[in-house]
Amino acid sequence: MSPDTLRGRAAIVGVGLTPQGKLPGSTNLSLQTDAFTLALADAGLGKSDIDGLLSEPGTTDMHWALDYLRLGRALGINPLYTGSFAMGGATAAALVQLAAMAVTSGMATYVACCFGDAAKTGKRRPLQAAGGYLGDETANNAAWGAFGAATWSALTASRHMALYGTTSEQLGEVAVAARRHAALNPAAMMRTPITVADHQRSRMIVEPFRLLDCCQVSDGGACVIVTTAERARDLARPAVTIEGMGQAFTTQDHECPDWWYGPHQKLAVERAYKMAGRGPRDVQVAQLYDNFTISVILWLEHAGFCAAGEGGPFTENGRIQLGGALPVNTHGGHLSAGHPQGWWTLAEGVRQVRGEGGPRQVPGAETCLVAGRGLVLNTASALILAKG
Amino acid sequence: MAGPHTSRPGAQPAPKPLPVVNDENRPFWAGAARGQLCMQRCLACGHIRFPIQALCPRCIGGDFEWATLSGRAEVLAKVVYHRAFHPSYAADVPYNLVLVQLAEGPRMYGNVVGEDRDEVTVGDLVDAVFEPADGLYVPRFRKIGAN
Question: Domain B26-145, what fold?
Answer without folding.
Answer: OB fold (Dihydrolipoamide Acetyltransferase, E2P) (2.40.50)
